[in-house]
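Researcher: Next sequence.
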Amino acid sequence: MVLILGVIAAWPGLALAGSGWYLLAAPQVGPYDEREETYPSWLGTNAPLSSWQHLGAYDSAQACEAAKREQGRIALDVFKGVQAKADRATEYGAKWYANSRMYMIGLTYSRCVASDDPRLK
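Model: Next structure:
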């Protein structure tokens, strides 16, 4: 199962691959559990960085962190909208809610990593 974190629009300050900083999202390593209110066991934050999903490349750590904050803000806004509108009693509404929550949580645990970090190999 793959998180839906790869949907990021073109971003100002986007770096070429192999230079700068990467915004990475941890892989999903287990089934999503909505009841988890603290650390999500389904998110593989201890997985090797080489298995993390690349969400973007940036010229600097500051640009990467700014992108992470902005994407997190957008994800929270989307989640709040879904939370208010989704009929979780329906299969579609429940999936819509779960996916937006997973996206928001995944971005919370995402990391900015230097492109030359040896842990990426």
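Model: The chain has two helices and three strands. Strands lie at 21-25, 53-58, 111-114.
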